[in-house]
Amino acid sequence: MRITLGMQTSQTLLSLNDQQEQITQISQQIASGVKLSSPSDDPYDWAQAMNLNQGLQEYNSILSGVNFGTGWGQATGSALSQLSNLVSQAQQIAISASSANGTSQSAALASEVNGVLQQAVSLANSQYGDQFIFGGTSTTSAPYSIDDSTGAVTYNGDSNSIHVKTGTSNASGSGSTVVNLTGDDVFSYTSGGNTLNVLQEIWGLGQAIQTGDSAAINSDLTTLNDAYNHINNESAINGATLSELTTQQSAINVMQTNEQSTLSKLQDTDIADATTKLSQAQTAFQAALQVTGMLDNLNLASYLSGTSIG
Amino acid sequence: MAGLTVTLYTALQTLENTQTELQTASNNISNAATTGYSEETAVQTSNPAVHTTSGWLGTGATVSQITSARNQFLEQRLMNSMTDNSQYTSLSTELTSIQSACSDSGSNGISQALGNFFDAWSTLTQNPTGLSEQTGVYSAAKDLASAVQSTYNQLNQIATQIPGQVQDTVNQANQLIDQIAQLNTAIAQSQTPTCQANQLSDERYQAMDSLAKLIPVSFSQDPATGMVTVNTTDASGSLTVVSGGTGTHITTSSTITGGQLGGLLTAQTDLNGYISQLNTFTSTLMSKVNNISEGSEGGNPVPALAVFTGADASSITASTTFLTGPTSSELSSSALAIANLQDNQVTFTDGTIATPEQYLGNIQQTVGNDVQQANNNQSFYNALQTQLQTQQQSVSGVSTDQEMVNVIQDQQVYEEAAKIVQTVSNLMSAVISMVS
Q1: Considering the entire predicted model, what is its pTM?
Q2: Which member of A46, A51, A138 has the closest CB to residue B328?
Q3: How many whole angstroms from its chain centre is CA B91?
Q4: Is some CB atom of chain B closer than 8 A to the CB atom of A25?
Q5: Domains and CATH numbers, chain A
Q6: For B419-433, how does the pLDDT look when each residue is reduced to its tens digit (9 = 90+)?
Q7: More confident position, B192 or B431
Q8: For residue B73, with 0-12 CB atoms within 10 Å meaning exposed, 13-18 middle and 19 or more buried, which class applies?
C-alpha cells in the first residue's frame, strides 16, 4: 500500500481521540463515583435505577406511615390500659360500697367514683400529637363530654376508620392499615343484651352509691365487669395492629436494604475495576503518543538532510 | 541521418521536461497537507521517431499532460461514509442535548417531584385536616406541575430551534449545489482531452465532499465534457440536484433521509415523540388524580375539586384550593387512593400499561436508547470514514518520500542532459575549427 502524509495524520488522530475519550470517561466514573451519568450510558440500567430510587423513596414514606401507626397504636394502647385500670378501680369501689355503712363513707366513695369518671373522660379525649384518637376521622375536636347531672354522654366523633398508607397496594392488599379505634368501638359495649356506655356506667355507679341503692350497685358490678372484658378485648385488637405494623417495619427495612444494594450495583463505580481500566488506557495512550512522535522523523527528506543531497 | 542539432534540441527538450517535472514535484510537496488536493503526475510520452538510413531514430520525449490521481469509486464510497458519519454526528449532538434537557435519574427531575407528590398524599392519610400535611400536598402538587412544565419547556425550546438549523443546512447545501454547477461550467470550458483542469476538479471534489456531509450524494462524470451529474436521495427515490451547469435547489420541506439534514430531521421526529410521551404521561396522571379528587373513583368528596387543571405537559397547573371543602373522612379516602396510584399499573392514553414511575422510566429508556444508538453509529461511521479516507489518500495523497525520489531522479536526468549539451557544443566547436 502506498503511504501518504494525509493517511498518517487522519489515522493517528482517530486512535488518539478514541483513547482520550476512553480515559475521560473512566476518570469521570471514578471522580463522580457513579458509572451512569446519563441514560445513554446504559438505558436499561438507568431506567432500573430510576425505579429503584423511586421505590426507596416510597419505602421511606411507607415507613413514616408505619411509624405514625405505631405511635398512634401505642397511644391507644396506653389509654386502653389506663382505662381498664380505672374500670377495675370502679369495680373495687363498688365492692366496698356494697358493704359500706354510713352516709359519710358513701359520700367519700361517690366522690372517688367521680374522680375515676373525670379521668375516664379525659382518657376518652386522649390525643396523639394534636389529633384526638377516639374521635374516628373527626380528630380536631374533643369527642366526649358528659353531663354530670343527667349522665348523658355526648359523642362528637364519627365511626370512620383512619386508613394510613403502610405498604404498597397490590392485588393481595390495599396497602393501608386502620390505625384507630373509634369512641364507639371502645366505650360502647353490650351487657345482658343492652348497649351500654362505659362512661355512663361509671357515672351510674356514682349515682347508685350516693343514693345507697345496693341493687343498682350490684348490677353495676356485673356491667362494669363486662366493660372491663370489653376494654381488654379492644386492647388485644390494638395489640394485633401494633404487631402487624412491627412486622411490616422489619419487612420494609429488609426490602430497603436489598434495593439499596441492587441500586448500588447498578449505578456505583467499581473503583478497583475502573482504576485498572484507567491505567490500561493510559499506557495505551502513552504508547500511541510515542509512536506518533517517532513517525515524524521517518521520511526520506529528514534522512537526506542528514547526509546532505548531491 | 540526424545532425548534431537534433541531438542538441532533444537535450533542450529534456531540460524543459525535467523542469516541468520538478515544478510538479514541488507543487505536490507544497500541497501535501492541502485538503482536497490530489497528487499530480507529469506524463511523458516519446516523440515520433524519424526515419534514417540506419533505421528509426528516437527524438526524445515530451510532457504530454499533467494528470491528477483520482479513483471515482473510492471517492463515491468516501462520500457515502461522510454522509452517514455526519448524519449520526448531528443526530447524536441533538439527542445528547435533548437527553440532558429531560434527564431524570429518579432522585431529581419529574420522577422525584412525582415521588414527593405521592409521599405528601401518603402523609395526608395520617392527618387529613392537619395544616402542615395539607400544605405539603399543595406544594408537592405545585412542584410536580412545575417540574413537568419546565421539562416540557426545555424540550420545546430545542424543538423550536431545530427548524432554524434545518434552514441553515438547506441554505449551505444550496450554495454548494450552485458552486458545483458553476465549477462544471468552468471545467467544461477550460478542459481539453490533453489538458485537464486538475485544480478546478479538486475544488469540485471538495465541494461535493462538503455537500455529502449535508445530504446524500451520488455522482457520475461525463468523460467528454468533464461535467458531473449529482443526485441525492429522498423518500421518493433519486433526485438530481446538479446537471451540467444547472443546479436544482432543495427545500426545507424535503424528505431527505441522510447527512446532517437527515440527522436533524430524525432528531426532530424523535423529539416530537418524547414530547408526546410526556404529554401522554401528564394527561393520564392528571385524569387519574382528578378522577379520585372529583369523586368518580375511590371516595366521593363533596364538593368535587380537581387537583390539576390544564390539558397537557405545557399547561398543567396545580389548583390551590382542592383540599378546601371535603370532610376529613372524604379527604382521608381520597388521599389513600391517590397515594396508592403509585403502586398500580394504569392504562395510559397511548395504550401503555405501567405505573406512573415506570412510564417515566420508559421515556428515559427510549431517549437513552436513541442516544446510545446514534453514538454507536457515529463512532462506527467515523472509523469507516477514516478507513476510506486512508484508502483515498493512498491513491490521491502526496507521498513526500516518492516526491523526494522523483526530485533526485529529475536532478540526475537534468545533469545528464546538460552533459549532452556540453558534449554537442564541444563537437560543434571541433567542426567549426576544422573549417576555419
Answers
A1: 0.82
A2: A138
A3: 8
A4: no
A5: 51-265 (1.20.1330.10)
A6: 999 999 999 999 899
A7: B431
A8: exposed
